[in-house]
Amino acid sequence: MIEQLTIVGLGLIGGSLALALKQAGMVSRVTAYARRQETIDEAIGLGVIDSGSTDMGLAVAGASVVVVATPVGVMAEMFELLRPHLTPQMVLTDVGSTKGSVVAAASQAFGQLPAGFVPGHPIAGTEENGVAAAFAELYQGRRVILTPLDSSSEPSVSTIRQMWQACGAEVVEMGVEHHDEVLAATSHLPHMLAFALVDTLARMDESEEIFEFAAGGFRDFTRIASSNPAMWHDICLANRGALLAVLQRFSADLGELTRAIENGDSEHLLQTFRRAKGARDRFAEKF
Amino acid sequence: MIEQLTIVGLGLIGGSLALALKQAGMVSRVTAYARRQETIDEAIGLGVIDSGSTDMGLAVAGASVVVVATPVGVMAEMFELLRPHLTPQMVLTDVGSTKGSVVAAASQAFGQLPAGFVPGHPIAGTEENGVAAAFAELYQGRRVILTPLDSSSEPSVSTIRQMWQACGAEVVEMGVEHHDEVLAATSHLPHMLAFALVDTLARMDESEEIFEFAAGGFRDFTRIASSNPAMWHDICLANRGALLAVLQRFSADLGELTRAIENGDSEHLLQTFRRAKGARDRFAEKF
């Protein structure tokens, strides 16, 4: 049971967490920090939070758990704002899509990393943004990755684990660096490809006509290109190293495939397509 | 009204066409050519065709419209088999995803292109294959592109146009080369990217774990990597020129995006993502 949850950054992710914990009866009081009073008023109106403030000190006063749920590019600033108000009793987590950059920002802001700090990343979301899009079921059956640090205390890890489990999520742990590699491959790289593809086509002379004749496969393939540009800008730069490594690997593989098409290398083409279909079909069965 | 429709190649595409025309009361009799008698028996059992033969001459005897609905890699062989049996009264079309290669194959097989030949391409399909997956509604609201040739007679074009309209499709016309460019961009390139991405990840050391943490966006993005490898092998090689052109363009754009990530070029990243999101959102509204 969480006495007071404080959400820093009121959007889909933080709002859905608040709603899920309320629905599960796992939290007594939810407060929030937001930059704009209108966001707080909206969230109170929606029943997402009980109270909130544009003053960080007022927002987190009395918090047992603080969840930073802003885009990763803003977390350094939030940690700075939090620093004077964080007490040793507070457990602190975040929901950032990259973990190395968040840990570096926390380290920078706090000097010594607090024992209550447990970095986290719920693998969930929609193309919608904002607290109005929040819903209690967002984390049902989804994965949440925690990347506890050497500095993280056992009770803090346990609190954050139970918090996400109460939302219906499956919690797993891994190292910070490993998290960033896995996410670069499964999420950040696909987003780069979707953005790049749609942009390539949009810049072609006959772009209007091209989109006219795109079919269902194209719609599915490019859905993630509708994601928030500012958020993805942040993620790219925050996970630069791991993303560049996997981009390089992909570009080399695409180069090989291109040469196989050029040379009419049927063997290479069939092997690649079969291996990919096999992996995708196995993945689809599990999902 | 089509007196006798003959489907050459009994799969999802040909089978669904037969079912749609039957349901619309637009065809009196449907026959088919298939390599294996079991396919014919299955299609008769499913009510897709009335009769069929593994002998091309018997299958097309009496046909008013012949539709070649095999993978594009097999069409040259089908045209060869058809040649001795095609009469000037028969209207001939195909459903190939590439049009330049099909026209070249027809030209090779028939010498002079028949006035009854009208190349076509229904922009429809599922990840399912085979006649058992056929359903009458497949073409409802979908586009069918016809690429009539200088040799195509007006009445033939009209017959094929009405045939697809009877299935609920919207029929548009364009040139062969233009078709191949548009499809390379909207369909063939995305398939290459999806196959290449899944293959890149499948070949990484931690591939099992990577697929474990992939989320909904990844599932949508990679759905087309479950497509038929042999069919896509054929399409790649059949539309090699146009596909290589757009692959080159995409690779250059992805290279630029990679350099922007490397250099922390926020402006370039935001511009690219915003332009892509804008184009994708406009596309999604129309679709």
| Count of beta strands of chain A | 9
Q: Estimate the helix proportion of chain A, in percent.
A: 40-55%
Radius of gyration of chain A: 21 Å
Structural class determined from secondary elements of chain A? alpha/beta
Q: Oligomeric state of the chains?
A: homodimer
Average pLDDT score of chain A: 95
Please, how many helices of chain A?
12
Q: What shape does the CA trace of chain A take?
A: elongated
Whole-number count of domains of chain A: 2
Topology:
The structure is a homodimer of 287-residue chains.
Chain A: E1 2-8, H1 12-23, E2 27-33, H2 37-45, E3 51-53, H3 56-60, E4 65-68, H4 75-82, E5 91-94, H5 100-110, E6 117-118, E7 120-122, E8 143-146, H6 154-166, E9 170-173, H7 176-202, H8 207-212, H9 216-222, H10 229-238, H11 240-262, H12 266-286
Parallel strand pairs in A: 1-2, 1-4, 2-3, 4-5, 5-6, 8-9
Antiparallel strand pairs in A: 7-8
Helix pairs in contact in A: 4-5, 7-11
Structure description:
Chain A is 53% helix and 13% strand. In chain A, 53% of the residues are buried. In chain A, the strands form two sheets. In chain A, strands 3-2-1-4-5-6 form a six-stranded parallel beta sheet. In chain A, strands 7-8-9 form a three-stranded mixed beta sheet, with helices on one face. The model of chain A has no long low-confidence stretch (mean pLDDT 95). The two termini of chain A are 31 Å apart. The first copy, chain A, folds into two domains: 2-174, Rossmann fold (3-Layer(aba) Sandwich); 178-286, 6-phosphogluconate dehydrogenase C-terminal fold (Orthogonal Bundle), CATH 1.10.3660. Chain A contains twelve helices and nine strands. With 287 residues, chain A is α/β, with parallel strands linked by helices. Chain A has helices spanning 12-23, 37-45, 56-60, 75-82, 100-110, 154-166, 176-202, 207-212, 216-222, 229-238, 240-262, 266-286, and strands spanning 2-8, 27-33, 51-53, 65-68, 91-94, 117-118, 120-122, 143-146, 170-173. Chains A and B meet through helix 7, helix 8, helix 9, helix 10 and helix 11 of A and helix 7, helix 8, helix 9, helix 10 and helix 11 of B.
